[in-house]
Design a protein that fits this description.
The complex is a heterodimer of chains A (433) and B (325). With 433 residues, chain A is an alpha+beta fold. Chain A contains 18 helices and 14 strands. The chains are: A alpha+beta (433), B mainly alpha (325). Chains A and B meet through helix 1, helix 3, helix 16 and helix 17 of A and helix 2, helix 3 and helix 13 of B.
Chain lengths: 433, 325
């Protein structure tokens, strides 16, 4: 009886182990195969993200692609940002991955460095290479090779209430840091008696704004040496940037929490309540604010974050998306042609029309029609991305030392030296993991 | 029945060859003996496949280098104890482990004390008051974790939170714009309150069930013998809730040790990683960093810690006849 039960359990265990080995071994055979394009009808699977390319664009694009490629069907699927990292990981590991994918520019280095994307260095010129947006180009590079192609981007600007500016006697939007501070002073003089009024809404952890100031001072958050990145926050440039941020917080008397970012609570919602004159935001946050008060849309305009050099705009952090071909794709030839089409001027112009900065075209004229979009476009040539290292993924996932540094410095919990050293240590740890 | 036999066979147990001569008797008794096991077979297989198999996989993965690249290319790279070395030589791991252990102990102790207190209270409360309390408990318990977490975030918000506003109204002016999430301890305290708040109802109801299971005449007998409230609790209530208390302690340790959602949702383990617990570390290494091998090693180490902590309880639960549940 005992022997029986032991034999049974032993047998099951052996069976499971064998099955497991077989399971993990079998998938290895699929890698590295270069298949000749099969004859007959083919399907190319394209994954774009929710809210990225407008439907009018994709409909036209997919139709043109199908018309010019006989027997080819485009299987176009819209993905949700929520949980996309896991979904992409699973999809890339499968035998039948999508052929064209859209990835966030801060995720791109991780995928590029792990060698799961097709090297497209040789095709850069086919994809409108001369007009690429510098920040997105950098995000798709790893070890001197190009793995991802710029798609579209956006950057922050200062959204402001035209009516409040007018009432406070501010005639033109600020074009220097000093004018920006002066505008805050005038707004406070006019509306300061209202305890709920905020000349500028600036939460303690809006690190994208800090990045802008750091770039403007000539600094950066990390130095690159080949594949190696090192945190570079313990510098006078970062000190100057942090001090200006602190000055803005102090002078404006913003009621935003010092220990949270612009999402908690969502700043557009607070802007929409009508008691905020300015916020550093993305153009489409106007629409979010208008959900609370539809009249706010007509009262709001934008200007680029001013530089410390009067008359210039400050460099900005650019968030956006890249396009890439998964290494396991069975239709790399079609994928390349699809990328060629989507990166052409014709379709890139439609991105500008939709209010985004095109990734492979320098033509931003379509953004000029709307003053909010025009302000973004004005600053866009001077855009930067976060360090193109796979280690950034952990920071992106939530534990961002730059946010902690900001809160610690603004609240006085740490000195500048201590705050930046802790943040540099944390960055270096993330980069080396 | 046929399917049962098939499953058992496919699992690799050929029926042993019967000896000649005693063939008839042996076969009959063998099949008699085997029948219960064959009937158990499918259930055992399902359990092995769903419970043991993933655990075994994690153990295997913890000895492999498995990053995004290896996963996508389907490579199997054995690296021996490298992942464990990587984790164990990181001083942060020890700090995080200790933090997680202390956090769990404090949480389990407070959950059980409050739960027991409410259970005793419920037994003494009359009619509708008890119903109101029970409805409140059920509501607190039934609210989704993320919803409760969001409410707590708002309550403890620096400028818009009801807590700071109330404290200022009460005259504690230093709480104007006070940040509850500026240090790890303070952040973990808020998270702790949140978790305890959600865990207490279940514990209270379980213990309450034990209390009302106690025959009334035992209390009457105790009262005749001149027992006051405290000694009646010790002599009558305590023995009846003790086995349940043991079970709930065990469950609470498991739940609180693994708590991830609340910790992550409140501050992603910040500030400066000072509220990072082991499950958060697991997430950061595995999902965020795509180092699935290292992450599996953390998971195995967590299991080791958990077994070490709960070993006594497991043994007591398995052995003691009074905890037959």
């Amino acid at each position: 009886m005992r022997v029986w039960s032991k034999a049974l359990i032993g047998g099951v265990a052996v069976a499971l182990t064998v099955a497991g080995c077989a399971g993990s071994g079998s998938s290895s055979s699929s890698s590295g195969t270069t298949t000749a394009p099969p004859a007959g009808p083919r399907t190319i699977t394209v994954w774009l993200m929710n809210g990225s390319a407008p439907t009018t664009l994709t409909d036209e694009l997919n139709k043109e692609f199908q018309d010019s490629h006989k027997d080819v069907t485009v299987k176009y699927e819209i993905q949700q940002w929520n949980g996309i990292q896991d979904k992409l990981t699973t999809a890339l590991a499968s035998n039948n991955p999508p052929d064209v994918i859209e990835i966030g520019n801060t995720q791109a280095p991780k995928f590029a460095s792990d060698g799961v994307l097709e090297d497209v260095t040789a095709n850069v010129n086919d994809f409108n290479g001369a007009n690429w947006l510098a920040s997105l180009k950098a995000s798709g590079q790893w070890d001197g090779k190009q793995y991802a192609v710029p798609f579209y981007a956006a950057n922050r600007e200062i959204l402001y209430r035209k009516d409040l500016f007018e009432q406070a006697g501010i005639t033109a939007p600020p074009t220097s840091r000093q004018e920006w501070l002066d505008a805050i002073g005038k707004l406070k003089a006019k509306f300061g008696s209202d305890p709920n009024f905020q000349a500028l809404y600036l939460p303690g952890q809006n690190w994208y704004t800090l990045l802008s100031f750091i770039y403007d001072e000539g600094g950066d958050i990390a130095k690159q040496d080949g594949k190696k990145f090192t945190g570079s926050l313990e510098t006078p440039e970062v000190k100057a940037a942090l001090d200006f941020y602190k000055q803005l917080v102090d002078v404006s008397g913003t009621k935003a929490p010092k220990d949270a970012d612009e999402q908690t609570p969502e700043q557009a919602g607070i802007f929409g309540q009508g008691k905020v004159a300015m916020m550093v935001a993305l153009p489409w946050e106007v629409a979010t604010a208008a959900k609370s008060d539809p009249t706010i849309k007509d009262k709001t305009s934008g200007f680029p974050i001013p530089s410390k050099t009067a008359g210039q705009t400050a460099p900005v952090f650019q968030g956006g998306s890249d396009l890439a071909i998964p290494g396991n794709s069975k239709n790399k030839d079609l994928a390349r042609e699809y990328l060629k089409l989507i990166t052409s001027d014709k379709y890139q112009a439609q991105f500008a029309k939709a209010g985004m900065i095109p990734g492979t075209s320098k033509d931003v004229s379509a953004l000029q029609a709307d003053p909010v979009n025009a302000a973004m476009a004005k600053a866009s040539p001077n855009g930067k991305s976060t360090p193109a290292t796979p280690g950034w993924a952990t920071i992106e996932a939530g534990q961002n030392p730059i946010k902690d540094m900001l809160t610690a410095y603004l609240t006085g919990a740490k000195t500048f030296e201590q705050a930046t050293k802790d943040a540099d240590d944390a960055l270096n740890k993330a980069f080396s993991s | 029945m046929t399917s049962t036999v098939d499953t058992a066979r496919s699992a690799g147990t050929p029926p042993p060859a019967a000896r000649p001569g005693v063939r008839r008797r042996a076969r009959r008794s063998l099949s008699d003996l085997a029948t219960p096991y064959l009937m158990l077979g499918p259930a055992v297989l399902v359990m092995l496949a769903l419970l043991c198999w993933p655990a075994v996989q994690v153990l295997f993965i913890s000895f492999r280098k498995l990053d995004l690249g290896e996963l996508v290319r389907g490579e199997v790279k054995w690296v021996g104890f490298d992942n464990y070395k990587n984790v164990l030589t990181d001083p942060d791991f020890w700090v995080i482990s200790l933090r997680t252990a202390v956090f769990t102990v404090v949480l389990v102790a407070s959950t059980l004390l409050i739960g027991l207190g409410i259970a005793v209270l419920m037994r003494h409360l009359a009619g509708w008051v008890r119903v109101v309390l029970q409805v409140c408990l059920v509501l607190a318990w039934a609210t989704p974790i993320v919803a409760t977490t969001t409410i707590f975030q708002w309550m403890f918000d620096q400028n818009y939170g009801i807590l700071n506003k109330t404290l200022v109204k009460l005259g504690f002016d230093s709480y104007q714009g006070y940040s509850w999430f500026s240090t790890g301890t303070s952040t973990l305290t808020v998270i702790g309150i949140l978790i305890v708040w959600q865990a207490v109802p279940f514990i209270a109801f379980t213990l309450y069930a034990g209390l009302i299971g106690t025959p009334k005449d035992l209390y009457e007998a105790a009262a005749i013998d001149g027992a006051n409230g405290w000694s009646a609790f010790r002599a009558v209530s305590w023995p009846s809730v003790r086995p349940l208390l043991m079970l709930t302690t065990f469950l609470s340790v498991l739940w609180d040790f693994r708590a991830f959602t609340q910790v992550w949702a409140i501050r992603q383990g910040g500030p400066d990683g000072k509220s990072t617990t082991l499950p958060v570390l697991l997430y950061l290494k595995g999902i965020a960093g795509s180092h699935f091998g290292v992450s599996a090693a953390v998971a195995v180490l967590m299991l080791v810690i958990l077994v070490a902590v709960t070993w006594r309880y497991v043994r007591l639960l398995v052995r003691s006849p009074e905890t037959e549940l």
